[in-house]
Amino acid sequence: MENILKFTGERYVPEINGNIELEHIHRYVQASTLAKGKIVLDIASGEGYGSALLAECAQQVYGVDISNEAVQHATARYNKANLEYRVGSCAAIPLADASVDLVVSFETIEHHDQHEEMMLEIRRVLRPDGLLLISSPDKHFYTDLPGIENEYHVKELYEHEFKELLNKHFSYTKFFGQKLIYGSGIFAESDSTGLITHRREEGQLQTQSGMRCPLYWIALVSNAALPEFATSFLEQDVEHSDTYQSIKIALDHRVEDIAQHKKWIAHLEQDIAELNRVQERNLAEHKNQISVLTEQSEELQRSLLSIKSERDAAFAQVVEIRASTAWKLSAPLRWLIHLSKGNVTPLWNGIKFIVSRSRILVPKPLYNLLGASWSKVMNLTAVAPHSSMNQGTIADIVKERCETMQQSLAVCLPPALKPEQLPRIDISIVTYNNGRWIEAFTNSLLALNYDKKLINLYFVDNASTDDTVKQLRIFSQRLVEHGLTVEILERENRGFGAGHNAGIRAGKAPYCLVTNIDLTFERNALLNIVSSAQADTDRAAAWELRQKPYEHPKYYDPITGSTSWNSHACVLLRRSALERIKGYDETLFMYGEDVELSYRLRRAGYVLRYCPQAVVWHYTYESAGQVKKLQYTGSTFANLYLRLKYGNFWDVMAVPILSLRLMMANEAYPGSRFDVFKNLFRLVLLTPKVLFSRSSSKVNFPFRAWDFEMIRDGAFIEQHALPEPPPLVSVITRTYRGREHYLRQAIVSVARQTYPNIEHIIVEDGGNTAEELIAGLRGNVPLPLRYFGLEKCGRSATGNYGMQQANGRWCLFLDDDDLLFSDHVEVLVHALTDQPKASAAYSLAWEIMTDSSQINDGYYEECSYQVPDALRQNYDYQILRHHNFFPIQSVLFERSLFEQRGGFDEDMEALEDWTLWVRYAHNNEFIYVPKLTSMYRTPMDPEQVKKRCDAFSAAYPVALARNISRTQAIDEQFVVDTNKSIG
């Protein structure tokens, strides 16, 4: 049996037919016209078929390839007296000087990056009047335009690069283009070939001499005058073409499909007949059930009316009791009972409301003193791991959000910088036994769409004991070749922060990127983060990149990206701010040094940002929820240290209590208690110095037990690459007059989504007052904004109109006062693409009690953040029929559900979303994603709360009755639709 070389995609073999055969054979056929009677070198001869073809007319042919396997195969398969195969490379050709007349090099130069060495070797083996015939794919047309990379290509050349390389080494050159034109043509790039191409451009027929947009360049070059070299066209039989074969396969499959469909239709007709028989039997039963359910519904409504009457009577009785003298006199006793249980938040909210209503009677200094004192009492009585500064921290971020929205949107939606606007960047990387990450890190740096000459790298090695430094030197050479500046600093291991201090001091650029080496950059990560920094205010000092596959779960503002501290796994820092605060605190060896630097920046008056559009892939965890020894000891020490350095009096008082709790806790790993004891002993020695170094500040520094900021659920919900191309998502927002301040923020939260293909549809109920706002945003918002002003028709009709206008595969409702975190749509799309049979996905959301009394001035107060227990619910259709557990903005659903089952009930103004979800979920699968990705508002004012509850109570029995009856209607419609499709 003839020896066959396996086709891997790297080397062509003659057993493969179609377009690839046409391209490769045509080149060798054309080369044969130059090879007659000559000594020929076929460099990178591969399987050997081309060298054998040349040997039919040449005096002698040498086929040289770097693969020993390929050379052995070619020698065995092609046995000719004037043909010899040898092992060698383009940079070391195993032939004597000036020993060949013609060098043929097809499908070679793009497979390596030693182009200069290759040219020098070819000139060495060529005789003075020798010829080189060489091909190269045009990177623009071969790779850039189709967006597909060949994994075996190391360095492809653009047209000008290919020509510059050959013109540098040879005096005479002539270039030909090659591409498939229902066959394969090789034509000179000039008009002397007689080839005329036509194309349509902007509606006009354009004529051009020579080949247009060749996929490959073929060059004939020499240091002597070039011979005549004709253009040619190699015709291919239609039945051998890729197109013909594709159509034939498709037709064969279609014939099989038709036969299969006939069988399926026959089975389906039998099933329908049986279903009709069953349906006839069930209809009578369903009618009886409907009658029973109707009676039950009426009884339920009577019961609810009775309950409401009893509730109103009880409420009146409560009001009477609260107004009594006995209730007032017993208030201190109730306060003590709550205090003894450590549960004083409800009481505090009540007192806060009463005092806020009577501020005109209470002097402002006394009111402020009462608030501060009460927070400290709460903190102390709870043995208080939570700081009284926590709420103030969030309040500061919300205030900055409102101020920013009244000033410039560039902070929230920064435009991408142009190449000439890019600043120089220093990158500091601390290494310690990180050899396994260096290659991937280097490759991602080289793939950045940022001018490499503007990047300075400072690798700071903390006395690695493996081959990290050796590998750094190897890969640094590659980085330097691509234009980056690289410096390796070797030093003793004094910790993460100390290492970065050395790296930062070595540079001078206006921005410094501090990064781990166990991560890789997405292509536009550096451009996006620098664009954010350049568009930001002078008050901003740090911009944190988003981490995948596990996003850091801390709270950040969904509009401005402001946060109370940055993770320094990868963060861009303003050099002037770093110099002002004198870099990292080297007391902290590892973990917590980023929080400490963040707090010091904020104390100096700076704001910090989180930028979800700039992404790195950080491989810090080998498994979800992994507990790492150094992280456990380092982070607990840092928390206690920072409380001493930045906490208020009560935070400092909590340090010994937390230390005791830590010593008494179960061991996180064997020996953790002893490690904690050593850290606590060190903390005791540091305490006098830290306390005496404290400085007063009006800035709030959060401490929440062993965390610092609020944590969003879903830290280990893994994210991966988005589908290509990403389907369109339609976000629909219903609004009405007077909602402009909220609406602007909702639009920006959609515009900041990391999912790249979104349209935002805004529908106003009862006018067009928002039209001016939308028009002003269109130039700043990087996604389609579609606005529709309707006459007054109600919330439900407005929502239905929005769904009618939607073009997306998936839809999502966002109320005008709700906000999305930047990954909301991306997380839900991931869930639906992972489980394509599902019709919708939903995630967790914060309920935020909001005081909107100052909304007309552009401000509001967010009073509390919580995920109601009812929302932490795995999908269960029977539970959904009883009560709703989807906040409306948390659900991403297939738009086809609207086409199949209709929209909101337009006679409902409350719970209309619940009846919609029940209809859409019937016989469908919804996916629960336990990650917090959005927030919705509920009123703080008790009067508004009561009004809202009354509306829900009135709507509930109506909605419940509809939920029960609708499921049967959907089943009946399914039978009708199935009969129609068969008919």
TrEMBL record:
Domain Methyltransferase type: residue ranges: 41-134
Short name of one Pfam family: Glyco_tranf_2_3
Keyword Coiled coil: yes
Keyword Nuclease attached: no
Organism: Undibacterium curvum
Name of the molecule in the record: Glycosyltransferase
Domain Glycosyltransferase 2-like: 427-550, 730-844
Alphabetic keyword roster: Coiled coil
Any coiled-coil regions, as ranges: 265-303
Lineage: Bacteria, Pseudomonadati, Pseudomonadota, Betaproteobacteria, Burkholderiales
